[in-house]
């Protein structure tokens, strides 16, 4: 396989990792154990920023590089992987958004409320970029 395909595969993994990390934090905040206060306070803001910098930012960069490497000739498999990045991101953030009603009020901060909405909006350009690789037709070589 070519390098751009491996980059797209890695970006799918990083987007899935981000969705999983966010879901685990939102699930924890919705279902905090009763004896958790004995261990100290918890703030989700640093964790959300950490997950963004560890998973979705590098995943977005890898997807962008794979797109840039294939934009001249197009690639359906890479387009499908980039579209799946957007689908994973959108689905994960929809589930995170559904957890917000159940989160204890002491854990609700601006980052907790805004992050799912922000990444739902950011999934739309990911869909568009992936779909643009379907439009591009491979150029036939000039035989003369």
Describe the structure.
This protein has 144 residues and is mainly alpha-helical. Helix content is 73%, strand content 0%. The chain has 4 helices and no strands. Helix 2 packs parallel to helix 4 and helix 3 runs antiparallel to helix 4.
Which descriptors would you attach to this protein?
mainly alpha, 4 helices, elongated
- Fraction of residues in helix: over 70%
What's the main sheet like? none
Q: Structural class of the secondary structure composition?
A: mainly alpha
Percent of residues in beta strands: under 5%
What is the number of helices? 4
Shape: elongated
Low-confidence stretches: none
Quick check: average pLDDT? 88
Gyration radius over CA: 19 Å
Determine the N-to-C terminus distance: 30 Å
Q: H/E series, N to C?
A: HHHH
Give the beta-strand count.
Answer: 0
Concise account of the structure shown:
The protein is mainly alpha-helical. Helices cover 73% and strands 0% of the residues.
SSE topology:
Blueprint: H1 3-30, H2 44-70, H3 76-99, H4 110-135
Helix pairs in contact: 1-2, 1-3, 2-3, 2-4, 3-4
């Amino acid at each position: 396989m070519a390098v751009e395909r491996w980059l797209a595969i890695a970006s799918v993994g990083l987007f899935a990792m981000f969705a999983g990390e966010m879901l685990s934090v939102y699930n924890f905040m919705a279902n905090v154990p009763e004896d958790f206060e004995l261990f100290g306070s918890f703030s989700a803001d640093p964790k959300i920023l950490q997950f963004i910098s560890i998973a979705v930012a590098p995943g977005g960069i890898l997807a962008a590089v794979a797109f840039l490497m294939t934009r001249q000739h197009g690639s359906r498999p890479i387009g499908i992987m980039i579209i799946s990045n957007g689908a994973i991101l959108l689905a994960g953030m929809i589930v995170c958004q559904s957890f917000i009603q159940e989160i204890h009020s002491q854990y609700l901060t601006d980052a907790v409320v805004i992050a799912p909405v922000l990444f739902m909006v950011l999934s739309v350009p990911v869909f568009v970029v992936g779909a643009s690789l379907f439009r591009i037709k491979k150029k036939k070589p000039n035989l003369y």
